[in-house]
Design brief:
53% helix; alpha/beta; globular; 5-stranded parallel beta sheet; 10 strands
């Protein structure tokens, strides 16, 4: 294998984790590889324990996936050690990667009948509906996926979930799959990432088993495909997906897809496939609002055995108005580490210290000036209109929205916000906030604009 697979695993984790999490816990690891054993060395026992408890599952999952892409017969064991490659302080921990039950072929190879195929679900058991935090931003997606889990193939088929990374698309896919299997252990449910589907298809073409490959997917009760935008520009893969898609829908077999954008916005996808995506229901998952961010923080803290005081949770949620829930998880990880290192109680003061760099970056991104700039560009007005005396609706409405965003996304007081908008009184800002809330409840266009602006300012 060499160490290429480990380097690729690190590259993926760097994109998925917060910068502080990656730098603190994973960057210090050194790796060695010999006889299908990947040894990871951490500088001290605390780091080793932290990686084992918080990142080992995802490391094992990624290593296994990457290993299978390189060689379907390759099984890797992972050891997490303390020290350097030449001096090890503790007895090695052998962590066998959960390998699929295959010997010399992919599941679909060597099979003559679809019903004989040994399916591998790839489902992560810990992702369930019970531990998915519900809020206004995702309650429609949760309700829909729960209905599908109760009656797969009978309602909302296909289902298309789209959202920015880190908002729970993958969690919901696994939750649906786990729920279907819990109700019917014989159900053939497969979760797969799009890049793996493409790689497996390429291997099946190379091994002259493409028909078995198609039969394998056509025989499923439910197919859950993550990150469908990966198919963009891959014409042969799209053709196979199109055939699989049609076969499953004709057989009333459930298909759920996810992407980081609305189906019509995915470039490089064949129009007939894009049309199929729109046959069922397309549901966005929006960034979590304040109350949901608080609930997520408290839930993630409880998973680590921490008690997060309400005032601390609200402080973090107000300061980190982000779109990626994994950033909130990273914040909890940093706070937990700081509390354990210092032995201090979790307070706002400790949080300010533990998240100093993260808070500084976010505060820089969500200034009133930046909010005015983004809103002005969205509505195609001049930035100077934000502080002008003009009261025409084309100017006044964006100005009110910008004020409401400033109230929600910054720590500035109403008088300070009013001053930034041409020296207006704090009552004007309060009226603007109330008016925008009213409009969002009555006008879908205003609600959608507000969500788009939140996403833009939180990225």
């Amino acid at each position: 294998m060499s160490l290429v697979i480990w380097q690729e695993c690190l590259a993926q984790l760097k994109d998925e984790l917060s910068k502080s999490d990656f730098s603190t816990w994973l960057r210090p690891l050194q790796a060695g590889y010999n006889n299908s054993i990947l040894s990871l060395y951490s500088p001290n026992k605390f780091t080793s324990d932290w990686v084992r408890n918080n990142f080992m599952d995802v490391i094992e999952s990624k290593i296994q996936l990457l290993a299978q892409i390189e060689d379907p017969n390759l099984t890797i064991q992972i050891r997490l050690l303390v020290g350097r490659p030449e001096t090890v302080d503790v007895a090695p921990r052998i962590a066998p990667v959960a390998a699929p039950q295959v010997s010399t072929s992919h599941p679909w190879q060597g099979q003559n009948k679809a019903q004989d195929v040994a399916h591998k679900s790839n489902l992560i058991k810990r992702f369930t509906f019970d531990n998915f935090v519900e809020g206004k931003s995702n309650n429609f997606a949760i309700a829909t996926t729960q209905q599908i889990a109760e009656n797969p193939g009978g309602v909302y088929n296909p289902l298309f979930l789209y959202a920015h990374p880190g908002l729970g698309k993958t969690h919901l896919l696994h939750a649906v799959g786990n729920s279907i299997v819990a109700a019917n252990p014989d159900a053939k449910v497969v979760y797969i990432r799009s890049e793996r589907f493409v790689q497996d298809m390429i291997n099946s073409i190379r091994n002259n088993t493409i028909e078995q490959f198609k039969d394998y997917y056509a025989s499923l009760d439910a197919l859950l495909i993550d990150d469908i935008h990966f198919f963009a520009g891959k014409e042969r893969s799209q053709e196979v997906l199109f055939q699989t898609f049609n076969s499953m829908l004709d057989g009333h077999q459930q298909v759920i897809l996810t992407s980081d954008r609305f189906p019509k916005e995915i470039e490089g996808i064949d129009e007939r496939l894009r049309t199929r995506f729109g046959w069922g229901l397309s549901i966005p998952i929006d960034p979590p609002e304040l109350e949901t961010r608080v609930a997520i923080l408290i839930s993630k803290a409880e998973e680590r055995g921490l008690t997060l005081p309400d005032d601390v949770a609200f402080f973090i949620a107000k300061r980190l108005t982000i779109t990626d829930v994994r950033v909130l998880e990273g914040a909890i990880a940093n706070i937990s580490a700081k509390a354990q290192f210092t032995g201090q109680d979790i307070t706002i003061s400790l949080v300010q210290d533990a998240l100093r760099d993260m808070l500084a970056v976010h505060t820089k991104q969500t200034t009133i000036d930046n909010i005015q700039k983004v809103v002005a560009e969205h509505y195609r007005i001049k930035i100077s209109d934000m502080s002008s005396k003009r009261r025409t609706r084309t100017v006044a409405r964006p100005r009110q929205i910008a004020m409401a965003l400033a109230k929600e996304l910054t720590q500035h007081s109403l008088p300070e916000i009013g001053e930034a908008f041409g020296g207006r009184d704090h009552t004007t800002v309060l009226h603007a906030c109330r008016k925008v809330t009213e409009l969002r409840n009555e006008n879908n266009d205003i609600q959608e604009d507000y969500k788009i602006l939140i996403r833009t300012l939180s990225m």
